[in-house]
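Notes, p. 3: input format for complexes.
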Amino acid sequence: MLIVMEHDATEPQIERVCSAIRSLGLDARPMPGAERTAIGIVGNERPVDPARFAGLPGVRQTLSVSAPYKQVSREWRREDTVIELANGTRIGGRQVVVMGGPCAVESEQQLFAAAEVVAGAGATVLRGGAFKPRTSPYAFQGLGVEGLELLAKARDRFGLAVVTEAMDPEGARVVADFADIVQIGARNMQNYALLREVGRLGRPVMLKRGMSATVKEWLLAAEYILAEGNPHVMLCERGIRGFDDATRNVLDVGSIALVKRLSHLPVIGDPSHATGVRDLVVPAARASIAAGADGVIVETHPNPAEALSDGQQALPPERFTSMVGELRAIAEVLGRGLVGL
Ligand code: PEP
Ligand code: MN
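Output follows (341 residues plus phosphoenolpyruvate):
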């Protein structure tokens, strides 16, 4: 970090900043210039909080030279992180992964019908919410533990891995007992108690981007999980809020490419929540893979018209199946291919 002093900063003010830096066990390197003095901080293993210096007299500006997140950055780890699941699915490697399933687990019949489609299409991870964070408290909230039990049954039956959401720290402990991947939803991206808990649990985590979160905030949220000792984190771009309600959200496809550059963590696109419109889901899925995503998570329902949540964006079975073929072709052009079992 660089601390830039005002042009009329006095020697005692410069010395005060230097001693504040030294009190943290770090080295201060004042660099007098023609106009003003800048003070470099060296020797920091972790990012330094700029707020510690911003308020000192004579300080004009603090400039971070390295990213505020450490362990999630490419500087920390050059090679891509690859997350391996119990059914053999590798996320973040050469091949692209497809995750599919209903928004919410509704019944054994519905979930098994969806799982059959997902496995039959060649996808390897089954999604389905048991604990649902709904915008309205009167909307279907999910089956809870019964939903988790159905997911576990479907996993055994179809050989799929399972991803499902946890909404609070207690719930995360229960979800981690059943799921291969614990999903943190957009609404909880900055629920730091929850992030720390999934960091301690050690199960793979899919961290969705908050609907109004900057890329930096998203990566800092991931840093919470890694800082607790869990390196198995994938980032999910699920669309951000825009000014236009023509689509539910705006797929930030550029952020997929950007985050692949900034971080070694796998990135997953969620074209379902990004668009919220069935006919737009497949094009957005194609765009996600084309932009460099390591996979997609897509909602599909055996009978979208009767879905208890997000029916308007659920793909009918045949469209899910044809999408997987299209994504395979795109992945192959990029020299990647699709994860299969
Ligand atoms: C979901 O995956 O069904 C979901 C609620 O997603 P998000 O948190 O991205 O809104
Ligand atoms: Mn949904």
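The longest helix spans residues 317-333.
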